[in-house]
């Protein structure tokens, strides 16, 4: 058997995985791959080694967006597999049954731009509805496919089908499945192993799952542990959103879901300030003082948002902007504009979804930035109080802070 990491890596690299369930359940193996990577050749491989009854597992939000209803209102299937109405992609396909046509339909089901009108009903590909709690809620191949694809940072739509013997008379069992996996260098894991991995990495925090707290949310937990720090012990929870390409960190202290309005800090990644102690900005002092404030209060959340370096322009561009500020006298706004970059390209959607996932709908927000307040309010999170979060200005960052106050609307009182 392979590791969960092997399986996730294979999916991320456009490969396939073989997933077996318990002997006292279906006792079979399914071939699984990310739906967005279902090329004609990949579908042909599925048709060669499986029953050919190709299914695509999706979540409830996706099914609702596409108007895909359950096949029957009263499911009497032995394992309650949630079959949806079968579909074909309507553009560039013919009968819908060939490997090429089915591949087009499967890939379309993973495309966020797909609309209900793009699908013909009935068709030759069977969507399946996954439970929101993944394999921890239902130990099925449907949920395993969605879980694994999300863990790989993909759309969460999974192509899957049961593997049969070469003569197609029977389902392939464990020894034969192991031989097939070895022959084609396909990682093989069990649903039991995936459930154990989730339980082990999530600990006492809610199970790894797609965030169903608000329709359309996509953020997913990817790991969790306790983290002792100089100011106290936090729960460290890693998150990613499909297609994001980075992982974000929530440092949580106390029962933030039970409190009225916990302290919250949305902290944008700043390698130069947070790690190197740069005096050009106030990021490092803000990060440390936010953790201290949360520890003193006994409850709160600091969300460390990756991909926000230099207000979203990236490390290299930020250093180039520094050069323009130092040698050409531009301020932080004009330096970005001179480079053809946005003044502030940050997006706080992921932070809002993380707060949803943590059960936080009302906050006392530590920030000087009106954009952060507006982002939370627009998402439906109540900002009960905006708490100024300033550090003492230095000779190196006074001009920078003044620009943020005068040109970007930040609330800064210590500048005088």
Question: How would the blueprint of this fold be written?
Answer:
Elements: H1 4-12, E1 16-20, E2 29-34, H2 40-49, E3 55-58, H3 60-66, E4 87-89, H4 99-109, E5 119-129, H5 141-151, E6 158-162, H6 174-183, E7 188-190, H7 191-202, E8 220-228, E9 233-240, E10 248-253, E11 263-268, H8 271-275, H9 283-297, E12 300-305, H10 309-312, H11 315-328, H12 332-338, H13 349-357, E13 362-366, H14 370-379, E14 382-387, H15 398-408
Parallel strand pairs: 1-7, 3-5, 11-12, 11-13, 13-14
Antiparallel strand pairs: 1-2, 2-6, 3-6, 4-5, 8-9, 9-10, 10-12
Helix pairs in contact: 2-4, 11-12
Description:
The chain has a 7-stranded mixed beta sheet with strand order 4-5-3-6-2-1-7, sandwiched between helices. A 7-stranded mixed beta sheet has the order 8-9-10-12-11-13-14, with helices on both faces. The protein has 2 domains: 4-198, DHBP synthase (Alpha-Beta Complex), CATH 3.90.870.10; 211-308 and 346-408, GTP cyclohydrolase II (Rossmann fold). α2 crosses α4 (99-109) and α11 (315-328) packs across α12. With 416 residues, the chain is an alpha/beta fold. The chain has helices at residues 4-12, 40-49, 60-66, 99-109, 141-151, 174-183, 191-202, 271-275, 283-297, 309-312, 315-328, 332-338, 349-357, 370-379, 398-408, and strands at 16-20, 29-34, 55-58, 87-89, 119-129, 158-162, 188-190, 220-228, 233-240, 248-253, 263-268, 300-305, 362-366, 382-387. Residues 203-213 have low confidence and may be disordered. It has 15 helices and 14 strands.
């Amino acid at each position: 058997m392979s590791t969960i990491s092997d399986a996730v890596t294979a999916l991320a690299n456009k490969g396939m995985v073989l997933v077996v369930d318990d002997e006292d359940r279906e006792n079979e193996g399914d071939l699984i791959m990310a739906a967005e990577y279902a090329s004609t050749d990949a579908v042909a491989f599925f048709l060669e080694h499986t029953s050919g009854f190709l299914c695509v597992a999706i979540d409830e939000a996706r099914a609702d967006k596409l108007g895909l209803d359950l096949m029957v209102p009263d499911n009497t299937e032995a394992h309650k597999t949630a079959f949806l109405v079968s579909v074909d992609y309507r553009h560039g396909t013919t009968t819908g049954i060939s490997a090429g046509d089915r591949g087009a339909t499967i890939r379309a089901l993973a495309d966020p731009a797909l609309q209900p009108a793009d699908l013909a009903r009935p068709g030759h590909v069977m969507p399946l509805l996954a439970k929101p709690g993944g394999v921890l809620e239902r130990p099925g191949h449907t949920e395993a496919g969605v879980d694994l694809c999300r863990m790989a940072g993909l759309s969460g739509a999974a192509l899957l089908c049961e593997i049969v013997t070469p003569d197609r008379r029977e389902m392939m069992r464990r020894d034969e499945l192991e031989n097939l996996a070895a022959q084609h260098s396909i990682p093989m894991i069990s649903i039991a192993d995936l459930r154990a991995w989730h339980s082990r990495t999530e600990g006492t925090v809610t199970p790894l799952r797609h965030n169903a707290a608000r329709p359309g949310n996509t953020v997913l937990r990817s790991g969790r542990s306790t983290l002792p720090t100089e100011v106290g012990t936090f729960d460290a929870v890693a998150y990613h959103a499909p297609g994001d390409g980075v992982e974000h960190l929530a440092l949580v202290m106390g029962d933030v879901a039970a409190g009225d309005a916990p302290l919250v800090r949305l902290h944008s990644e700043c390698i130069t300030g947070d790690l190197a102690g740069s005096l050009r900005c106030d990021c490092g002092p803000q990060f440390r003082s936010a953790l201290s404030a949360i520890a003193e209060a006994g409850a709160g959340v600091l969300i460390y948002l990756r991909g926000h370096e230099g207000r979203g322009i990236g490390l290299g561009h930020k250093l180039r902007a520094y050069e323009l500020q130092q040698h050409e006298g531009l301020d932080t706004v004009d330096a970005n504009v001179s480079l053809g970059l946005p003044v502030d390209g940050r997006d706080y959607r992921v932070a809002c979804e993380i707060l949803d996932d943590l059960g936080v709908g009302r906050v006392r927000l530590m920030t000087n930035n009106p954009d952060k307040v507006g982002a939370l309010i627009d998402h439906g999170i109540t900002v009960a109080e905006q708490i100024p979060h300033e550090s003492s200005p230095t000779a190196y960052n006074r001009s920078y802070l003044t620009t943020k106050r005068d040109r970007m609307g930040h609330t800064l009182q210590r500048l005088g």
